[in-house]
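Postdoc handover notes: sequence design on the structure in folder B. Input tokens:
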């Protein structure tokens, strides 16, 4: 009966770990207490030993994040002793680990990864040219403008790489070839004789960062080739990546000399643009070039909303388990105004204008990888609680990189809040193919005139950028005035007046 190996408790506050690296392959014979994989938490890297001697069956793959206590693998205990088992297994292993060429070449193309995705970038190759790969083994990561996907091998055999890291390919383009073979590659002679295998450049772990380390190095703009790994087999751990910044920067410093006089130390870092950043750049330029974009402004007295929040925020949070923010007021106000001025909620499709009787509100969210715009579906039917919970759920997914393609496509109108970063006024760019976007800004105490008297009020500038091909000046100004009315008298939102 197979023994289930579960993720052990590795720390009081650690609830999940990531499979950083498997040291053994599925079907390998493992000795008791032999290290079979590395587990990585947000704080440290741990080694997982085999609890018995036997044949390994891998359940959780490299890169998977699993909870403490979850099953990570199974081991079928060997009926023979730990000494004789490998020896007895050696002839069989010898027989099946001699791969034979079949003469077939399997061509792998870029798969379809989403309805609106037409191209991907090769983010990284996990296997090298000439490596033996097994069916369904992850050989590369491909990156679109919306997400990163793993590419599994479609056959057993020798890998022939066609597209290099950083190349951008269209869906259906040739990415690599596999020289199909029967059987698996033989293990090294040293391993077969029980000797310690050498660790060199051919070791996959050597110089290869763990998932957490890779993220840190990307954020710092440091290449993995500039970092020495202290993990098993030379793998770059999270701690190595955290320590790398100072060492790399000090080695890259150069001193500029002007007319023989030192002017200090200056640094320059180059980092490849991500596929997401390149796509954002292309789309923003396309919107500026292909639409008749115009922006109109107004200002909103935020005191009524702030008074409501001050009075009810504690009760609201206690009952609904979510905070009462400004976004729910703005979202509901926009939905009501969009239904009254449908051109602002429309889009151009060829020679036709498509009008929507629903409001799918795109909410701009800033993430470490760039700006994403997940969609709150049918927001006009939601109450304040549903809007707040929906926005929080989308924002958390966006920052964790867990948004699906469906959650980022199909919006009819966008709301963006530059005020959280301190912006006083801006002209937001339309999120094509939508026809308009509302920009929120910071709230500033300013003097205003009310009933002939100068008073201090918390004021916010709001901006509506719109496509003048669809939306006329009357419609855009009227829409923004309507939003202002609803925000300055929130009772209108409840009474729909």
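Designed sequence:
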């Amino acid at each position: 009966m197979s023994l289930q190996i579960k993720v052990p408790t590795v720390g009081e506050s650690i609830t999940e770990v990531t499979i950083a690296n498997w040291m053994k392959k599925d079907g390998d014979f493992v000795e008791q207490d032999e290290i079979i994989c590395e587990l990585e938490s947000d704080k440290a890297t741990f080694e997982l030993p085999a609890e018995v001697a036997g044949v390994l069956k891998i359940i959780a793959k490299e890169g998977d994040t699993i909870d403490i206590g979850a099953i990570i693998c199974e081991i079928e205990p060997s009926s023979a002793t730990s000494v004789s088992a490998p020896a007895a297994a050696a002839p069989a292993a010898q027989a099946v680990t001699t791969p034979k060429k079949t003469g077939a070449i399997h061509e792998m193309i870029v798969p379809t990864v989403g309805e609106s995705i037409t191209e991907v970038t090769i983010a990284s190759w996990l296997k090298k040219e000439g490596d033996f790969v097994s069916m369904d083994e992850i050989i590369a990561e491909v990156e679109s403008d919306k997400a990163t996907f793993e590419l599994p091998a479609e056959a057993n055999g020798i890998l022939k790489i066609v597209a290099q890291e950083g190349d951008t390919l269209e869906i259906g383009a040739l990415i690599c070839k596999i020289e199909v073979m029967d059987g698996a590659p033989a293990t090294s002679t040293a391993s077969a004789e029980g000797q310690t295998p050498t660790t060199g450049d051919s070791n996959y772990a050597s110089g290869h960062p763990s998932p957490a380390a890779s993220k840190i190095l990307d954020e710092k703009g440091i290449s993995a080739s500039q970092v020495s790994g202290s993990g098993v087999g030379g793998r770059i751990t999270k701690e190595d990546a955290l320590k790398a910044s100072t060492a790399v920067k000090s080695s890259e410093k150069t001193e500029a000399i002007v007319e023989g006089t030192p002017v200090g130390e200056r640094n320059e870092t180059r980092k490849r643009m991500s596929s997401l950043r390149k796509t954002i750049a292309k789309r923003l330029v396309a919107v500026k070039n292909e639409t008749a974009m115009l922006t109109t402004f107004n200002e909103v007295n935020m005191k009524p909303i702030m008074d409501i929040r001050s009075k009810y925020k504690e009760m609201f949070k206690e009952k609904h388990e979510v905070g009462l923010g400004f976004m729910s007021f703005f979202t509901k106000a926009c939905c009501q105004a969009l239904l009254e001025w449908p051109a602002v909620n429309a889009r151009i499709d060829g020679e036709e204008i498509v009008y929507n009787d629903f409001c799918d509100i795109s909410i701009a969210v800033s993430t470490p990888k760039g700006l994403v715009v997940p969609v709150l579906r049918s927001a006009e039917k939601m109450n304040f609680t549903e809007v707040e919970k929906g926005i929080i759920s989308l924002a958390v997914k966006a920052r964790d990189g867990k948004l699906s393609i469906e959650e980022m496509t199909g919006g009819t109108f966008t709301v963006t809040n530059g005020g959280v970063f301190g912006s006083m006024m801006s002209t937001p760019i339309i999120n094509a193919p939508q026809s308009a976007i509302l920009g929120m800004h910071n709230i500033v105490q300013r003097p205003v005139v009310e009933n002939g008297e100068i008073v201090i009020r918390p004021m916010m500038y709001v901006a509506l950028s719109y496509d003048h091909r669809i939306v006329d000046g009357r419609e855009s100004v009227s829409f923004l005035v309507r939003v202002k009315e609803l925000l300055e008298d929130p009772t209108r939102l409840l009474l729909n007046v």
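Context for whoever picks this up: The radius of gyration is 29 Å. Don't rerun without checking with the PI first.
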